[in-house]
Amino acid sequence: MRTHHFVKQLDHAAIVGAIKNAEANTSGQIRVFIQRGEMSADPLDAAQRRFARLGMEKTAERNAILVFVAPRARKFAVVGDEGVHAKCGPAFWERLVAKMRNHFKNENFTEALVEAINEAGKLLAQYFPRTGPARNELPDTVIES
């Protein structure tokens, strides 16, 4: 699917709202990145590289999560920083990706992203609850590049 068709189908307000709601109860940070154009790399590797390029490892508690989607290549991945991964292990990521895959197969793109954000937010709230004033370390907007 061409990236611009994918992006046009997204409800950006719903996605940003889901990020804000998920981050309301945690010190963790969630971002969504849409990769434009072709991509031959493994999506997990591409997501980890993008995570670093976005500076997401610089959060105070190393508790950021990136939802990475490459629509044209029909690939996606979800990655978390070392603090998150240490708490949840690989089973959490596998379940999250399986749920997203089902939504993507049915072309429910916004639902895939919102559900992933909601699940990530629950995990972050459990292990990284907000203890003081909200500190938004990373922008909540959907990134396209």
Write the layout of secondary structure elements.
Elements: H1 3-9, H2 12-23, E1 29-34, H3 43-53, E2 64-70, E3 75-80, H4 82-105, H5 109-127, E4 142-144
Parallel strand pairs: 1-2, 1-4
Antiparallel strand pairs: 2-3
Helix pairs in contact: 2-5, 4-5
Structure characterization notes:
With 145 residues, this protein is α/β, with parallel strands linked by helices. It has a single domain, classed as Diaminopimelate Epimerase, Chain A, domain 1 (Roll), CATH 3.10.310.50. The chain is 50% helix and 15% strand. The protein is built from 5 helices and 4 strands. It has a 4-stranded mixed beta sheet, sandwiched between helices. Strand 2 and strand 3 form a beta hairpin. Helix 2 (12-23) runs parallel beside helix 5 and helix 4 (82-105) packs antiparallel against helix 5. The chain starts with a helix and ends with a strand. The relative contact order is 0.25. The mean pLDDT is 93.
* Assigned CATH architecture: Roll
- Spans of at least 5 consecutive residues whose pLDDT stays below 50 are none
Strand content: 15-25%
Shape: globular
> Strand order, biggest sheet?
3-2-1-4
Q: How many beta-strand elements?
A: 4
CATH level-1 class: Alpha Beta
What portion of residues is helical? 40-55%
Q: Which fold name corresponds to the CATH topology?
A: Diaminopimelate Epimerase, Chain A, domain 1
Question: Tags for this entry?
Answer:
145 residues, alpha/beta, Diaminopimelate Epimerase, Chain A, domain 1, 4-stranded mixed β-sheet, 5 helices, 4 strands, 50% helix, 15% strand
